[in-house]
Specification:
Keywords: Heme, Iron, Membrane, Metal-binding, Transmembrane, Transmembrane helix. This is Succinate dehydrogenase hydrophobic membrane anchor subunit. The chain is an all-alpha fold and 143 residues long. The protein has one domain (31-137): Fumarate reductase/succinate dehydrogenase, transmembrane subunit (3 helical TM bundles of succinate and fumarate reductases, Up-down Bundle). The protein contains four helices and no strands. It has helices at residues 30-58, 68-75, 78-106, 110-137.
Length: 143
């Protein structure tokens, strides 16, 4: 596509890949579903986070009322447990999927990509597990 100048071709160097160029064999439809997940989870996260921020910071006195009793009362309701759990899971999976894409775009070596994706998966699993555990086992009757 480039015009030769003085007998030289100025095509891109063979060692550089274009961002998002496929490596290896193409996976089925995983990337399509990951792309769709990012769009829908982003929209749902906007609703969840704006609702969370409104309730926690703006309504009924704002930040001054936030204490252990407020959290205990909030998490005694299954509705708020599911709300906060949904926010946790969606935020972690949405962010992890975005970081997975960044790792795929910018890591050159397959081994680097493997280890970065492994660390990412471990961190997501750890944070989601601990967060889920805390939400469901929270005891408001602390002694």
């Amino acid at each position: 596509m480039s015009a030769p100048v003085l007998g030289k071709s100025y095509d891109r160097p063979a060692s550089l890949d274009l961002p998002r160029s496929p490596r290896g064999r193409a996976s089925s439809n995983f990337e399509k579903y990951a792309w769709l997940f990012m769009r829908f989870s982003g929209l749902l996260l906007i609703v969840l986070v704006i609702g969370h921020m409104s309730i926690m910071l703006l309504l009924d006195g704002g930040v001054k009322r936030l204490n252990f009793a407020f959290v205990a009362g909030r998490w005694s309701s299954p509705f708020w447990q599911v709300w906060d759990l949904s926010m946790l899971w969606l935020a972690q999976l949405h962010g992890g999927n975005g970081l997975r894409t960044v790792i795929a775009d910018y890591s050159r070596k397959d081994s680097t990509r493997f280890w970065l994706n492994s660390l990412l998966a471990i961190s997501i699993i750890l944070i989601v597990s601990v967060g889920t555990y805390v939400i469901f086992t929270f005891d408001p009757n602390i002694s």
